[in-house]
């Protein structure tokens, strides 16, 4: 195989892997934001009907935000270990 073909194959594999990684991140973010949105709706409902649940609801939203923050920092590109595509 020529060097050009090997480079094209390597770049294609890297592009596909990067795309898969971005899709994985976007799906995780979607899930995290849905959890946060649900917690916000729960806070609104709790505040309207029962003031005693206010602290519990606020605690849940803080927990979800902290969870999102910790996972976002873990998903940063410098923590992603790219496979070595040159090992065919």
Automatic annotation (TrEMBL):
**What UniProt keywords are attached to this protein's entry?**
Coiled coil, Membrane, Transmembrane, Transmembrane helix
Which stretches are annotated as coiled coil? Answer: 33-64
Q: Is Transmembrane helix found in the keyword set? A: yes
What parts of the sequence cross the membrane?
6-23
Highest rank taxon of the organism: Bacteria
In Swiss-Prot or TrEMBL terms, this protein is called Uncharacterized protein
Q: Which organism is it from?
A: Microcystis aeruginosa PCC 9807
> Which taxonomic lineage is given here?
Bacteria, Bacillati, Cyanobacteriota, Cyanophyceae, Oscillatoriophycideae
